Amino acid sequence: MNTVAAGVTQLRIQRFVNVYFVETGTPGEWVLVDTGVPGSAKTIIAAADQLFYPGSHPEAILLTHGHLDHLGAAIALADHWRVPIVVHPLELPYLTRQAQYPPRDPTVGGSLAFMSRFFPAQLPNLGTRVQALNPADPAAPYLPGWRWLHVPGHAPGQLAFFREADRTLLGADAFATCHHDSIPAVLLNRPQISRAGTPFNYDWQAAQQSVQTLADLEPEAIGCGHGPVITGPAAAAGLRALADNYPVPAHGRYVHEPARTDANGVAHLPPAPKDKLPQQAAVIGASILVAGVAWFLTGGRRRKTTRVSTKRRPVPAPHNRRGVGD
Q1: Domain ranges of the chain
Q2: Is the pLDDT higher at 278 or at 164?
């Protein structure tokens, strides 16, 4: 576990995604922000027992958004602790299976985009466990002194949380504190403020504006959904640099036209570009098959020829020749 700021602790789950324990200011009371990937419940419960006291439970679970690496253990934890799950209203249709998020875009490039082809698309149904925060009240639920900010572009109802008193920011996946387009960089946890979730960003203009909004806060401590804690001057400077030079991909489904969403889910999707990987994989597979058949046939003939050419001929039995005078 790593300290972000006073009363804010980061727990890294499976070297990939972060969750946060945030104290409310009342002794023994705290809130969990995000729940990691599926199967993370025992790890999070054990960390909470260690950080606070055995049997400790939060006042609520706040989800920055509903992608599977953030809500993975939400049902298990909410049922174990008997606490509500709070989200932005625009996330509700996706978390109650009334709608699906805009499809990921594996054509934008990078190792994360490649891997995204194999991520499950179906999300668990949170049912009555989930409730919406009040969009008219900027105060973060259950967290005095904190406010939430709506930062779409990666998920329609994505939330960031900011504490003005010490300028602490939990940035969700509006950006990352590691090179998020590279799976090896994420696993190595090298600090680098960068764009986040490239194959999952459905509106690049909104994503850029969200980073601009957060950079204007000039945070002094940052924790995101992916990557290490960054504090001090590097936090604000790195975020400002990203906002001023936000790298929109050269190509991709949502680069020139975003998906449009509303309170019911996805309202419009731009056409999907042709994904060349399946075709390339088929060509490679066919080439391997042809090469294998050719090897088998030529190898078989070669073995047969070798057997014929090395067969030993019978050697005549020796006999004595008698001379005329014997």
Answers
A1: 2-276
A2: 164
CB 193 within 8 A of CB 238: yes
What one-letter code names the amino acid at 144?
Answer: P
What's the CA gap between 152 and 125, in Å, rounded?
Answer: 22
H, E, C per residue of the chain: CEEEECCEEEEEECCCEEEEEEECCCCCCEEEECCCCCCCHHHHHHHHHHHCCCCCCCCCEECCCCCHHHHCCHHHHHHHHCCCEEECHHHHHHHCCCCCCCCCCHHHCCHHHHHHCCCCCCCCCCHHHEEECCCCCCECCCCCCEEEEECCCCCCCCEEEEECCCCEEECCCCCECCCCCCHHHHHHCCCCCECCCHHHCCCHHHHHHHHHHHHCCCCCEEECCCCCCEECHHHHHHHHHHHHCCCCCCCCCCCCCCCEEECCEEEECCCCCCCHHHHHHHHHHHHHHHHHHHHHHHHHHHHHHHHHHCCCCCCCCCCCCCCCCC
Span 2-276 CATH architecture = 4-Layer Sandwich (3.60)
Q: How far is C-alpha 227 from the chain's CA centre? A: 11
**Predicted structure pTM score:** 0.81
Express each pLDDT in 204-221 by its tens digit.
Answer: 999 999 999 999 999 999
Q: Give the integer Cα–Cα distance in Å for 61 and 29.
A: 12
